[in-house]
Design brief:
This is ECF subfamily RNA polymerase sigma-24 subunit. Interacts transiently with the RNA polymerase catalytic core formed by RpoA, RpoB, RpoC and RpoZ (2 alpha, 1 beta, 1 beta' and 1 omega subunit) to form the RNA polymerase holoenzyme that can initiate transcription. Belongs to the sigma-70 factor family. ECF subfamily. Residues 105-156 form the RNA polymerase sigma factor 70 region 4 type domain. The protein is of the alpha+beta class. The protein folds into two domains: 3-159, Butyryl-CoA Dehydrogenase, subunit A, domain 3 (Up-down Bundle), CATH 1.20.140; 167-309, Nuclear Transport Factor 2, Chain: A. Helices cover 55% and strands 14% of the residues. A six-stranded mixed sheet has the order 2-1-6-5-4-3, with helices on one face. A hairpin with a 2-residue loop joins β5 and β6. The chain is elongated and about 75 Å long. It starts with a helix and ends with a helix.
């Protein structure tokens, strides 16, 4: 195999590592591209191409994450990862770990870890790398990496999200939820929501978002219905799609431009959390992005006109 073939074969793994460390599609793609440039400059092939390239992309991702953490501390409102529709890396032997680590809930939880803890956790618990390889990747001793792994695992276990084990049941519940949403069925929505459900939006100060999380089945179901009807009136479409390995939907305006995504955490037969990403900077990799402010203005205008006509 050529040098290029070696790299392309490992590209899905490299992106998967970088995305889980960074929580950003664009930054992960940049990290993989930088890894390629360094790979081109290597004079002799290493003993293990996989170990070498994984170490390089990990080091690059750690450096990027350290600078990104300052920006995230100044972020307006809740921070969610850039939504990922399809994970390019597949490994049947680690499918459970890969799926769990990809969810928005898990990536938000990873934000609590230091960059080194995060990298060690991703390499060890998600991708199953040995400690000698991890030590080389993060430039720490094996003993130090074991300690980092223990600390990271403790943090993750304390807040690890629970998901519906049966994918088919989860998808059926999500389908019922989005049907009830489109139909404006408050009762239908309420019965699918956990009593303490939360709906949280990430607009980053660049798009409409709620000032705080909306909590409780009654409040969330009524807010969803209040949004649904005017959206339908102005031609907003809801495209079901897996988001970060969980059931979700992409909302598009009448021209097909992306408005936002919504991802569902489902456990115990109920929807526990609804996360919406509407920050346009986090949606550009999904295609042309709509002006969410303009969409909301049009929806509000449609709501007012309907109310006035009903008087």
């Amino acid at each position: 195999m050529t040098r290029t073939d070696d790299f392309e074969e490992l590209r899905p793994l490299l992106f998967a590592i970088a995305y889980r460390i960074l929580g950003s599609v664009s930054e992960a793609e940049d990290a993989v591209q930088e890894t390629w440039l360094r790979w081109e400059a290597v004079a002799t092939r290493p003993a293990s191409t996989k170990a070498y390239l994984s170490a390089v992309v990990t080091r690059i991702s750690i450096d990027v994450l350290r600078s990104a953490r300052v920006r995230r501390e100044q972020y307006v409102g809740p921070w969610f990862p850039e939504p990922l529709l399809n994970d390019p890396y597949e490994d049947p032997e680690r499918s459970a770990e890969l799926a769990d680590s990809l969810s928005m809930a898990a990536l938000v939880l990873l934000e609590r870890l230091s960059p080194l803890e995060r990298a060690v956790f991703v390499l060890r618990d998600v991708f199953g790398f040995g400690f000698p390889e991890i030590a080389s990747a993060v430039d720490r001793s094996e003993s130090a990496c074991r300690q980092l792994a223990v600390r990271a695992r403790r943090h993750m276990d304390a807040g690890r999200p629970r998901f519906e084990a049966d994918r088919k049941e989860r998808e059926e519940l999500a389908e019922r939820f989005f049907d009830a949403f489109r139909e404006g069925d408050v009762d239908g929505l309420r019965e699918l929501l956990a009593g303490d459900v939360q709906m949280v939006g990430d607009g980053g100060g660049k798009a409409p978002q709620w000032a705080r999380a909306i909590a409780g089945a009654e409040h969330v179901s009524r807010l969803l219905v209040a949004l649904a009807h005017p959206f339908v009136q102005i031609g907003v479409g809801a495209e079901p799609h897996e988001i970060n390995g969980q059931p979700g939907v992409i909302f598009r305006d009448r021209d097909g431009k992306v408005i936002n995504i919504m991802a569902l955490d489902i456990a115990d037969g109920r929807i526990q959390t609804i996360r919406s990403v509407i920050n346009p900077e986090k949606l550009t990799h999904l295609g042309p992005v709509a002006d969410a402010w303009a969409v909301m203005r049009e929806a509000n205008r449609a709501r007012r006109e309907e109310a006035e006509s009903g008087r």
